[in-house]
Amino acid sequence: MFKTEVTEMVGIKYPIIAGNMFNISKPKFVAACCNAGTLGIFNSAQYRTIPKLREAIRETQSLTDKPFAVNVNLFPMLKPINQEDYIKCMIDEGVKVIETSGHEAPDKYVSMFKEGGVIWIHKCVGVRYAKKAESIGADIVEVVGYENGGATGNLNIATLVLVPSVVDTLNIPVIGGGGISDGRGLLAVLSLGAGAGLMGTRLLMTQECPIHDDLKQAFINAKETDTVLVMKTLNATHRVWNNGAAQKILELEAMENTPAGEIFSLAAGAKAKKMYKYGELDTGMVSCGQGVGLAHDIPTVKELFDRIMKEAEDLVNKFHNS
Length: 322
Fold this sequence. Notes:
By secondary structure, this protein is α/β, with parallel strands linked by helices. It has a domain of 206 residues: Alpha-Beta Barrel (TIM Barrel). Helices cover 41% and strands 16% of the residues. The protein contains 13 helices and eleven strands. The chain has an eight-stranded parallel barrel, surrounded by five helices. Helix 2 runs parallel beside helix 3 and helix 8 crosses helix 13.
């Protein structure tokens, strides 16, 4: 019922993309998502050396025979990495799908994607960025609305308007995300013309997600109003869970002449890793979308994806029979 151009291109059962989450989307979790019928993605920037990246790719390949993707993170970093070397490693190791995300379209890497024969997905937050990606050769564009967890950009356009705006403009497939937590959300973006739905926040509350149970329970108890936008002053706006770390970042941003490094330090992945491991809920910043308020249990990823698809199918049948 839900075969789309995206599911056919990347070879997945369900039209769902399990979005990459820094220091969370690692081989075991990504493979679990892939084995449950979706496209899992892990972030290459969480591996600080080529050998570590190669090891992660090979571990993922050992855990699933399904397609998976690797993200190339083009956002500002305290310790930048050599993206050309990372992309070469991905291609050499047989990665078939590469996702890029960041402030600009990755013009200088396009030839590597094409020569490597990979499917290139570019993630962005606006029509003009999507058009740029298509113009330089993207195979699929992925757009996320304002309610999305993580990078939101500065356009403040919600999913319900952004997805059809991009679909109407492009001639390549579109993946739509932002606020998808159940079958209703997935069916909504598919009805807007997307070939798949991108899901991130909802996956934090699954059994396989490698974060502390106390953090999962905190998310279960959260409402749709429990997120905030941080790092606006650095032109790196992110929607995150409204915890102590997020409030501290907002306090620093409200002060004059706060060094960017001080804010980035609070937002650093090392602090989030400590929170994920020990359940110290106010230690680090964690990307979190408004859809957190729609999650009420902690299933396995397979249970979640199967349930989402059944909800979507039941809704379609309801419309057909009404």
